[in-house]
């Protein structure tokens, strides 16, 4: 009998003691440990969720309606300047985390295959490889994937570092992966939360892809840019043959986005104003928190875009987590994201303005 994959403990469970400590602060906890949206869902999205699609009793399609896929394809061109995407090469997913976790399995990876992830990476990239029985390697900047690599994960803006990769760096990674026949999956769930001078670029942009999407998958989430974490609304787009293969498996497995959520997704990707407004909110929060962290003696690295600040006190991250918890501020230790993060902490900017103000007040010396 085949044994189930041996998975690591869920990282955030280990923060229970620090969370309890932070919660004892007289003015309550400021929880900056998880990137959970707190701002309102846009009105146009809520209206779409409760609209005609909410009264469709039949099963939705796994591929989603043509008008949704066209709206997604149009948004990629409009928002990110990618080459036109075939709507058939767009696939709605039940949030992006489930796709990240199951992508190696859906692509048929298994024992003996390698999944390459960034040196500092979202933990679910590794979990997905383990679920498939594959092996994980962590790649430092510019390091090519080793022979036997079947899947390469890219992530810009980065979770946890907020780092934005240049078109040249992304192109180099794509060329290296293509050179050994590996699929590239670019986690772009924070892509919309960037702006000049730190504008992030999609793997489907011609400056990265060379004008062809073969072997490329761009993974997008509406959780962050449209405050839809509770809706579980995301999509993958790119190589038509890869998307078709994913669709076939997902149809058999019943991995279907609910029809009202599909309608909400269409509304969200069709409106850019709420995304620009939300990006501006996060930019303001990031700037305020960065100033406060630096005033408290921490160094902030990268952190150009997305939802996180990557900070260090040049000591083990768990000590920094505990020190901040005594001030009622909960953050995540960098070790969650790989051995290279052992002296950093990740600070999310997804608290309300009132809680951000509280954190700034506590961190700024009198």
Q: What is the SS-derived class?
A: alpha/beta
Q: Which regions have little confidence, pLDDT < 50, spanning 5+ residues?
A: none
Indicate the mean pLDDT. Answer: 96
Structural Rg: 20 Å
So what's the overall shape? globular
Helix content: 25-40%
Order of helices and strands: HEHHEHEHEEHEHEEHHHEEHEEEH
Biggest sheet record:
7 strands, mixed
Q: Give the tally of β-strands.
A: 13
Strand sequence of the main sheet, in spatial order? 2-8-7-6-5-3-4
Separation, N- and C-terminal Cα atoms = 63 Å
Indicate the proportion of strand residues: 15-25%
Count of helix runs: 12
Polypeptide structure, described:
The chain is of the alpha/beta class. The protein is built from 12 helices and 13 strands. It has helices at 16-23, 43-49, 66-80, 96-106, 123-132, 167-179, 206-209, 240-253, 259-269, 273-295, 317-326, 353-363, and strands at residues 30-31, 90-93, 114-118, 135-139, 149-155, 183-187, 216-221, 234-238, 299-301, 308-312, 329-330, 332-333, 344-348. It has a 7-stranded mixed beta sheet with strand order 2-8-7-6-5-3-4, sandwiched between helices. The chain has a 4-stranded antiparallel beta sheet with strand order 9-10-13-12, with helices on one face. Strand 9 and strand 10 form a beta hairpin. The longest helix is centred in the C-terminal third of the chain and has 23 residues, at 273-295. The termini are far apart.
């Amino acid at each position: 009998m085949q044994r189930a994959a041996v998975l690591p403990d869920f990282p955030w469970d280990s923060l229970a003691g620090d969370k309890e400590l932070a919660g004892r602060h007289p003015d309550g906890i400021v929880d900056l440990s998880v990137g959970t949206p707190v701002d309102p869902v846009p009105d146009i999205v809520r209206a779409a969720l409760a609209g005609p699609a909410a009264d469709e009793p039949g099963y939705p399609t796994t591929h989603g309606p043509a008008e949704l896929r066209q709206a997604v394809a149009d948004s990629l061109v409009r928002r990110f300047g990618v080459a036109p995407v075939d709507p058939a090469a767009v696939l709605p997913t039940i949030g992006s985390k489930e796709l990240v976790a199951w992508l190696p399995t859906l692509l048929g990876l298994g024992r003996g295959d390698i999944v390459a992830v960034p040196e500092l990476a979202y933990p679910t990239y590794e979990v997905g490889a383990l679920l498939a029985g594959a092996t994980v390697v962590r790649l430092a900047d510019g390091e090519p994937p080793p022979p036997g690599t079947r899947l390469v994960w890219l992530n810009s803006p980065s979770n946890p570092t907020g780092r934005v990769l240049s078109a040249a760096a992304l192109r180099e990674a794509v060329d290296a992966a293509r050179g050994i026949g590996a699929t590239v999956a670019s986690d772009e769930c924070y892509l919309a939360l960037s702006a000049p001078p730190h504008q992030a670029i999609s793997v489907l942009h011609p400056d990265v892809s060379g004008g062809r999407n073969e072997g490329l998958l761009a993974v997008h989430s509406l959780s962050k840019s449209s405050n839809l974490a509770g809706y579980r609304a995301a999509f993958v787009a790119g190589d038509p043959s890869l998307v078709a293969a994913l669709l076939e498996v997902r149809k058999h497995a019943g991995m279907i986005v609910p029809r009202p959520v599909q309608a909400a997704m269409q509304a969200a990707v069709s409106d850019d104003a709420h995304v620009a407004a939300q990006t501006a909110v996060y930019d303001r929060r990031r700037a305020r928190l960065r100033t406060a962290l630096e005033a408290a003696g921490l160094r902030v690295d990268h952190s150009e875009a997305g939802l996180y600040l990557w900070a260090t006190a040049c000591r083990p991250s768990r000590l920094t987590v505990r020190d901040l918890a005594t001030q009622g501020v909960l953050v995540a230790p960098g070790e969650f994201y790989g051995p290279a993060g052992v002296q950093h902490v990740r600070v999310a900017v997804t608290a309300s303005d009132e809680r951000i103000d509280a954190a700034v007040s506590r961190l700024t010396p009198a």
